[in-house]
Specification:
Elements (H helix, E strand, L loop, with lengths): L25 H21 L4 H18 L8 H9 L6 H21 L1 H8 L28 H10 L1
Helix pairs in contact: 1-2, 2-4
């Protein structure tokens, strides 16, 4: 897959939806991915985001897709786990920010292109945030733990 990085300050003309319906090859998927990425950038630009902000939203998507030479809907939990927890492990906040940016793009795809992706490529689109293992809730906030420990409840009754 060609690199997805953009040259700043250079206008590009893209023909969106240029692939014929029914194309199922890797080149067709790649072209469709580029179309959706360009439309996502256009939609963010229409929201009056600065070009640098748009780049920050798209950068994690392009990084992980370039790393594995896959389009987003081909990524598996193993890809995402290895990318974020593998060599050169990133800081937790950075990982969360990148996952949120990827998740935002996925939400955009789900709203606008999920049916088309399923029809053309037979892929089910799911957000990568489902791949990130959530940290356990603090004690006392878990479903199996009481909301207020028994000792604290007695103290609260005496105060009231």
């Amino acid at each position: 897959m060609e690199k997805l990085s953009a040259v700043h300050g250079v206008a590009e003309v893209l023909t969106l939806q240029s692939q014929r319906a029914g194309g199922r090859g890797a080149a067709d998927q790649r072209a469709y991915f580029f179309d959706t990425l360009a439309e996502y950038q256009w939609a963010r630009h229409a929201e009056a985001l600065m070009p640098s902000s748009i780049d920050q939203l798209v950068k994690p998507v392009t990084e992980i897709c370039d790393h594995y030479d896959l389009v987003l809907w081909e990524l598996t939990s193993r890809h995402v786990d290895h990318y974020f927890a593998g060599p050169g492990k990133r800081v937790r906040g950075t990982v969360r920010t990148k996952i949120n940016n990827i998740d935002g793009y996925c939400a955009f795809l789900e709203q606008r292109f999920a049916g088309e992706i399923a029809r053309r490529f037979g892929a089910r689109l799911e957000s990568p945030s489902r791949y990130v293992q959530q940290a356990p809730a603090p004690r006392g906030l878990r479903a199996e733990d009481p909301a207020v420990p028994a000792g604290d409840a007695r103290v609260l009754r005496r105060v009231a």
